[in-house]
Amino acid sequence: DVLHYFWLATDAGGGTSSLPLGLTSVPATRGEAEIATGGLFEVSFLPTIDWDAGFLGRIDADPHGKLEPTEQELQASSQAACILYVNRVNARRRSLQRTSFTYTLDMLGYGDAYDVYDHSGMGNTNNHLGGRATVEQAQGYSLIVYDAGAAGPSGTIMPEGNDLDVEKVDQASWFRSWLQQAALGEAGRATLWVLGSDVLQEKPNNPLYTSDMGVMLETTGQALDVNPEVEGVTSFAFLGSGTACDVEYSGDVFTLNGGCPVVRDYDGLGDLGSAVVTHRFRSPQQGVLAEATIVMNTDAVGRWNTIFQSHPWFDIVEPGSVPGSPQSEELLLSKTLQCVLPLDCAAGDPTDVRERSSAPPRTVLHANAPNPFNPTTTIRFDLAQDAHVRLRIFDVSGRLVRTLVAAPRRAGFDQRVLWNGMDDGGRRVPSGVYVSRLEVGNRVATRKMVLMQ
What we know:
By secondary structure, the protein is of the alpha+beta class. Helix content is about 15%, strand content about 35%. The strands form 8 sheets. A 10-stranded mixed β-sheet has the order 8-7-9-10-19-18-17-12-15-20, sandwiched between helices. A 4-stranded antiparallel β-sheet has the order 24-23-26-27, with no helix packed on it. The relative contact order is 0.10.
């Protein structure tokens, strides 16, 4: 499903050349090649599949490995990822490279939950997602993130297929069709997240934006500050697993690093129809709120959510901090993913790129594993500072089922508590959906769990 490759040439005089640079002879392993080159070139074939072990074994045993799976092997295989990240790149992807968005996904433990589709043009080279994949091939994804970065108003950020020289692919209509089939997907719902600077300025009247995402262009450049702050101003009720899933964004504040290497004229947004402004630009000096920078929408009948964000992900920094601080990105992303992803697309172990000897930057309740479970599951959380912790289990009606922790805890990563499916009276609880609730001071985090007897 993912191809890692390199080129190596040797001339008659013994000289060698490679792409990526760094190889002087044929490497013994792919890992050796990765280290020597800083990452091989990468191509993804969507979607990535967790193939049946028997099918993979047949491939390994075959001298050529070009085998088709049987119907039984197909039934035993499944799509690996629930997130598709679509990203514009200026050169061929290297296997060890990450964008700021995928870095945040990895930090939250979603490293195995997403596929990546890179395209090196913005419509003119026919390599957009809509030119390489059908809507049906993408039906298994619960979330598609379309990251335009700091593209600028080039006229091809979201191609409409109306010019064979510069806009061969109608990517906007492809996304509209993908939203329309949301109820047919594996999760029974879908979410589209579009982010980047000048995206709306390029085509403000595109029906993907105005009709589906409910967003309008108020101004082509917020004028508060080169490095404005962004403040969450309200909550939003996503279409979750069967019912609405409320996320409270009010009071969340982060700064945008919008002045380097070039000044970004972030679009100022407004909302249309049922859409909701969840985040606005704010002057860091005066505290004055201005136009919107994140607008969210949902359609209960169509079974989809949308998020439109008018600034690049890599511009998000902490107030007063240096670029690269991950806390604000993690907070925004973790709050959103807990509602837009299905229960079986839970976060796994966070990536090990973080310095584990230090305290976590914030308190996080991770998804339990396994989920669904029978009869035991492990609940994990990170604790940013020493504190009194309460970890309790509730049923969907709000009734307290079990108190797992009610005691002081030291700060640290990856704290684990086992729940054996029993209530406080030692009785086994029935199959169903339960909620783990972590309380630390005045902060509360919840996660849904499914017990299957």
